[in-house]
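ok so i was messing around last nite and threw this chain in just to see what happens. nothing serious, just curious
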Amino acid sequence: MPHLDGAYNFARLLVGRDEDAQDVVQEAYVLALKRFPGYRGNDARMWLLAIVQQAAYKWLKKHTKQSYMVRFDPAIPATTTDQPLSESSREEQAQQPDQTLNRLPVELRAVLFLREIEGWSYKNLASALNVPPDKVMSQLSQARQRLRQELVRVHQQDLKHEL
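result:
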């Protein structure tokens, strides 16, 4: 099963739970097998991860009443902070990547994963997400900013608990 680890990691990031990610990957591989006769690309991993993303979004639509799901709203303004993070807080936050990433809307998690972990180009992202390349750049910028905000928020909560 080629690219199974990447498919599972991506699905896990999008849906949040191991069992659900396994279901999504299973559905994605079934879809990939059905679509394989029409496959004419040269990057099978990209093709498969795009199918995983579709399967995950389909799964999320069915299970939107889950309390941990956050809908993506590009109209929500991002706030910034000028406070630098201490070295100890960076270490603590690095130990909790799933928790912090899961606080981001699923669309932002997807674009971050595909760009930063999988190394997809803007062109590939635009094609897979079916959006113009400038929208991909905007989503990436917003995803990075929201991730920074979540890291700062977690840090501030940790400081309150320590006091």
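not much to say yet. The longest helix spans residues 133-162.
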